[in-house]
Amino acid sequence: MYQFTWFDWFCLWYPPGWLILFNRHWQRYHSDPDGWNWLEYLLFLIPGGFYLALFMRWLRLGCRLPRSQGEQFDPNYQQLFKDEIIAPIVKYYFRAELHQVENLPASGPLIVAMNHAGMCFPWDFLNLGYLLSEQRGWLVQPLADVSLFEHPWLIWWLPPGWAKILGGVRAEWDEFKEAISNQTILLYAPEGLRGPSKGWAKRYQLQTFNLSFIRLSDRSSIPILPVICMGNEYLHTWTFNIKKLARRLQLPFSPISPLMFAFVLFPSMGVWAARSKLHYYIQPVYQTAPITENSPKQERSQSYKQAQELRDKMQDIITQLSR
């Protein structure tokens, strides 16, 4: 069992240390000769030290990328990571709370649709996944952009395959359908990347919803559970997105904010987010109306109408809560 030491508590309250927490926990349960070592961890904690640590690790590995540890979902490790790393972060740092739990169904499968924001590591999703699993004992899997699985930066930051092993589902149609067929409680951001990348100027303004979750809900007769998150806009404040730079770097978004100077000095802060009390408001289950049109154009139109109707309902609640 992984026990928090004084060093782990230090890492929790010192932003450059969050990446150390994730990797130390992984190494407790996995043999990872390609992973970071103690000297490199200590370099994370000093300005610019991460770059030296990265160079040292690259030389240590013979000037190659870290090898994959396998990419199969491991529910046992997800539970360990949730109990031993996510739990103290949720309880003591984000202080996340569920509201209106009477709206939670007794069982799944479900598509949990939440407003996603923050332009940072998806902490609003991770907190919600933890709270739902604690409340109902559910096995929860988030749908994530493909870049969170295979971007070269993440391969160096975190163990290769880390997101998949912890239950991440690629935002691709086939994986989407497979997850639902396995009775998964699937966390889904209907706005896609438009949500977290919209920037501070558009905080608490829902962007256009994608159609895929409406179609899958209809075809599989799986209800949608809308959830409103308040506080996630403050995970990385005063940001705006430089889209051209994001495309050049092959990133989902490229946030620019007063914090970026700190990120340049301490790249290990990439998995960190500012302290914000996160409140989750569970809404009544939403069951899609049957899509009866046969032509692709008419089906898309009907799906679009339902997606935007749900968006409008969620936006009204967000507007009321943010006053």
From TrEMBL:
It comes from the Bacteria. One of its GO terms (molecular function) is acyltransferase activity. Keywords: Acyltransferase, Membrane, Transferase, Transmembrane, Transmembrane helix. The keyword Nucleotide-binding does not apply. The chain crosses the membrane at residues 38-59, 253-274. InterPro entries: Plipid/glycerol_acylTrfase (IPR002123). Pfam families: Acyltransferase (PF01553). Residues 110-232 form the Phospholipid/glycerol acyltransferase domain. This is Glycerol acyltransferase. The lineage of its organism: Bacteria, Bacillati, Cyanobacteriota, Cyanophyceae, Chroococcidiopsidales.
